[in-house]
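Reviewer 2 asked us to include a model.

Predict the structure of this chain.
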Amino acid sequence: MSKKPILPGAVVVSKAGRDEGRTFLVIAELSDEYVLIADGKTHRIEKPKKKKRKHLKLAREPITEIVDRLSQRPMENYEVRAYLSDKEE
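Predicted model (structure tokens):
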């Protein structure tokens, strides 16, 4: 069984650390090991959290509209919060 890659635009859940169990949006890839995540509240778009991929669980595959939005210009914090709240229901 191969693991699915965690790519920008994906919704993830933290498996370790202070933020364990919280939902985030992957904003960017830094390397094979690290990604930047944000939730629009504690970890805002302006200062995303650097997190190891192995400490994240994929909750939802990247959505094309979000990937396109991230490539055009950064999302606003209220957009990230709204997107994550829709996906948690």
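DSSP finds two helices and five strands in the chain. The two ends are 28 Å apart (CA to CA). We have added this to the supplementary material.
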